[in-house]
Write a structure and sequence with these properties.
- The protein is an alpha/beta fold.
- The chain has 4 domains: about 100 residues, no CATH class; about 180 residues; about 40 residues, no CATH class; about 55 residues.
- About 50% of the residues lie in helices and about 10% in strands.
- The strands form 2 sheets. Strands 1, 4, 5, 6, 7 and 8 form a 6-stranded mixed β-sheet that branches. It has a two-stranded antiparallel ribbon with strand order 2-3.
- Strand 7, helix 12 and strand 8 form a beta-alpha-beta unit.
- The protein is globular, with a radius of gyration of 30 Å.
Length: about 475
Amino acid sequence: MSMGRTREKQASLWVAAPSLPRSPGHRFYEKLNELLHENGFDRAMEAACAKYFQADGTAGRPSIPPGLYFRILLVGYFEGIESERGLEWRCSDSLSLREFLGLLPGETVPDHSTLSKMRKRLGSEVFEGMFAFVLGVVNRSGLLQGKVMGVDSTYLRADASMKGIVRRETGEVYADYIKRLAKEEGIENPTVEDARRLDRKRKGKKTSNTDWKSPTDEDARIAKLKDGRTRLAYKTEHVVDMSTGVVVAAEVYAADEADPATMAQSLEQARTNVEQAKSSEERDSDDDPPPVGGSSDAQTERAVIEVVADKGYHKAALILSLKESGYRTYVPERDQPVRKWADKGWDMQQAFYGNRNRVRRPKGRALQRKRGELIERTFAHACETGGMRRVRLRGRENVRKRYLAHVAALNLGLVLRQMLGAGTPRALAAARKGSALAVLVIWAAMVALVRGMPSRLARFSRTTWRGMYPYEMHGVGVAIGGS
């Protein structure tokens, strides 16, 4: 046989469709596509986006289908890609992802600029509707309870640098600002090094959001991350169903907003999402149309929801407000001196001590342990393995749109974990490797056990094995027989 050599090739002018490369298929994405088709994902997304486009038959080039656009965003979570450029490249590179997106062999993946324009055109309510649609899918799968909710928050690094921050009142960059301070101290024509040397010793030195901002992303705020670094960031807050780990609300706030200031809004959004998901299932199963212009007493009466959070959310006024809104709190206290209730009122005092008693009971301690497990897991999935710890978009509204789609994919992963035993393609591949390794370990253990048998028993096992498998298996027979 002669050796093949690399030569320039002349591309054919015409290529037959059957000869184009086909995807061998991917079990995870095939099952995900089945799940979306069964629940009418494409039609629901088209109905939600209809008002942002012209009617059919009018002038204008058709946009990419909304179902295709949101599928690309789902890929961002499952593949751990945060940028739209990365999504375009990954979907173009993979035949299985092209099949998941429903693209024919001759069609191209939408450009990253098209994805950006689509995001800017669609309003926030479309992404909220997409998130609510996925919650309906989760509810029909039996994974949504909504009786006990856990709340926690974390920081997302913004797509802006601390080196580019400017003063809010003057617009000075940091180097110009410290030079001006050096001049005020009496140093003539200070260099940057002189100014920095003086700045290190300056008393009261701090970087405050009231004084500084980012010129490229004005919604980003200066925050101290858990690893001790100071960066521009956003705050995301998850409300999680403590029974199943489903994220029922994922809100994005400014990084300088305190946890007690945002908790009530996140809980109300979570309660609304759960009620919509459960009411949509009831409407689907009921032949009668839903009531218009009013609701029954059973619908207006809201059940009490138990809320679990860490001590960063503890505030007496917030606990009273949540109690009046129909929540039962389990929020541990910070270390603080003895409280005085002279000007706080009897209702706040009762709410405060009621929360303290619930936290100290065995149920409260168990809920706190479960909170640390379930809520932190959602942040690990969405931000670490999902790739959203650092966002690549600017502006709170843009970040929120992208993050809602990202967490919706996380919830779909919970449904797929129930169906396949894995919530991401990587987990499914690891499970297959693990099962193959387990088979090899069992096989090796059996071989070692048989080899340690007496010769007479080994000959019996070899005869028995060949009787079970009468076709030729000489190699296996020798290994088991120990000869």
